[in-house]
Design a protein that fits this description.
Blueprint lengths: L18 E3 L6 E3 L33 H4 L3 E4 L6 H7 L5 H13 L11 E4 L11 H11 L14 E2 L18 E4 L5 E3 L4 E8 L5 E7 L4 E7 L1 E2 L6 E2 L4 E4 L11 E6 L7 E2 L1 H7 L6
Antiparallel strand pairs: 1-2, 3-4, 5-6, 6-14, 7-13, 8-9, 8-12, 9-10, 10-14, 11-13, 14-15
Helix pairs in contact: 2-3
């Protein structure tokens, strides 16, 4: 017979709802209930699946991604695309720099004026510093570096300028500039480069043609004697011969050209070219 009185409801332990949150990405994992007597026990680390442990991505200043960000460079007096690309570590060199800024520079990459704003894109990592001995060794192995530009003759005045029209020239105009100098005057390479030809050039008399680091060629004509040979590397200001009056001339002088190829007919303004490298032409 049941006892009199109120029945008491059996007491049950309340099981807490435990949620463990792990990972920097905010992923949550509901842990299984372990039973009344251990409901408050922390889940062991080994029980947390590694798949939910996310690693946050942190952006660190100065990474390769930031180094390749485009920036603006303002051209200074004496700058060239070759020098800018080298100093700014442009991936692809001056040709890439020119391609990115052709609309600003114009059709001739050898002529850039101070104040132009160039976009520097694809900047590579800065090169580690090297000793003078190491640099000299590298230059010897790869040929002379682009150290600068100078006049082909010192203190000379220009006689006939570039593109002066006349029937005496097969092209109908003067393809270079004439520096008025007496026979025997030292003729120097305007920049470092490699001699591609040295010898008799028909109407040009004794001539030398040199290829430079920017892809342009300089020509020195009507010389009385040559000091270099084809295949030889030269430095800025190095003597390549002495002036004279060989070939089709009316008197001693140096005929000087800048070309886009080593051949006749690919001439560009030699005075503008030298000025783009900071050389003052009288």
């Amino acid at each position: 017979m049941p006892a009199k009185g109120k029945h008491r409801r059996p007491k049950f332990l309340r099981l807490p709802r435990s949620i463990a949150v792990v990972g920097t990405g905010g992923a949550a994992l509901a842990l299984p209930l372990m039973g009344a007597v251990c409901a408050h026990a922390a889940a062991p680390a080994a029980a947390v699946p590694s798949a939910v442990q996310k690693v946050a991505t942190v952006s660190i200043p100065g990474t390769a991604a930031e180094k390749t960000a485009a920036k603006t460079y303002v051209v200074k007096t004496g700058d060239t695309l070759v020098k800018i690309a080298d100093r700014q570590h442009v991936s692809g060199g001056w040709k890439k720099l020119y391609a990115d800024n052709r609309a600003v520079v114009g059709g001739d990459p050898t002529v850039i004026r101070p104040g132009l704003k160039l976009t520097i894109a694809g900047q590579g990592a800065a090169q580690p510093a090297t000793s003078t001995a190491t640099q000299a060794s590298a230059a010897k192995a790869t040929g002379p570096a682009d150290a600068g530009y100078t006049l082909p003759v010192e203190g000379a005045t220009i006689g006939t300028g570039y593109k002066v029209p006349g029937s005496m020239w097969s092209s109908g105009y003067h393809t270079g500039v004439d520096f008025v100098v007496p026979t025997g005057t030292t003729i120097r390479s305007v920049a470092a480069g490699t001699v591609v030809s040295a010898g008799w050039g028909g109407a040009y008399g004794n001539q030398v043609v040199i290829q430079h680091a920017d892809g342009r060629y300089s020509q020195y004509a009507h010389m009385s004697a040559l000091s270099v040979a084809a295949g030889q590397t030269v430095t800025e200001g190095q003597q390549v011969g002495v002036s004279g009056a060989t070939g089709n001339v009316t008197g001693p002088h140096l005929h000087f050209e800048i070309r886009t190829t080593p051949d006749y007919g690919s001439d560009v303004d030699p005075v503008a070219y030298l000025r783009s490298y900071g050389v003052v032409v009288g």
